Amino acid sequence: MMTVKEISELTGISVRTLHYYDEIGLFTPTEKSEAGYRLYDDKALEDLQQILFFREFDISLKEIKAVMENPDLDRNQILQM
């Protein structure tokens, strides 16, 4: 499991941005420690990688969330748009 700080250092995304993604339900922690720290597993890192990929194409966070929440949506079709 990795903390927000570790993910921030690994990806170059600010801790504040990761917290914001959690607030809007886009990138939620796998679990929280007893002290309340957000913890993420490898699957969560894969999700973050997809989010960052979509962001590179200037897709809005709202659209990214819809894609991530709906496995029936064709991600390739979204990219073509």
Helices and strands in order:
Layout: E1 2-3, H1 4-11, H2 15-23, E2 31-32, E3 38-40, H3 42-56, H4 61-69, H5 75-80
Antiparallel strand pairs: 1-3, 2-3
Helix pairs in contact: 3-4
Structure, explained:
The structure is a single chain. The chain has 81 residues and is mainly alpha-helical. The chain has one domain (2-80): Multidrug-efflux Transporter Regulator, Chain: A, Domain 2. The protein has 5 helices and 3 strands; from the N terminus they run E-H-H-E-E-H-H-H. The protein has helices spanning 4-11, 15-23, 42-56, 61-69, 75-80; strands at residues 2-3, 31-32, 38-40.
Please give the alpha-carbon distance between the first and last residues: 35 Å
Mean pLDDT, nearest integer? 89
- Please tally the β strands and state the result: 3
Task: Assign a percent range to the helix content.
Answer: 55-70%
Largest sheet: 3 strands, antiparallel
Strand order of the largest sheet: 1-3-2
Number of separate structural domains: 1
SS element count, helices: 5
Instruction: Specify the CATH class.
Output: Mainly Alpha
Name the beta content range: 5-15%
CATH topology grouping: Multidrug-efflux Transporter Regulator, Chain: A, Domain 2
Shape call: elongated
Q: Would you identify the CATH architecture?
A: Orthogonal Bundle
**SSE class:** mainly alpha
Element pattern in H and E:
EHHEEHHH
Report the uncertain regions.
none
Global Rg: 13 Å
Features:
single chain; 81 residues; mainly alpha; Multidrug-efflux Transporter Regulator, Chain: A, Domain 2; 3-stranded antiparallel β-sheet; 5 helices; 3 strands; 58% helix; elongated
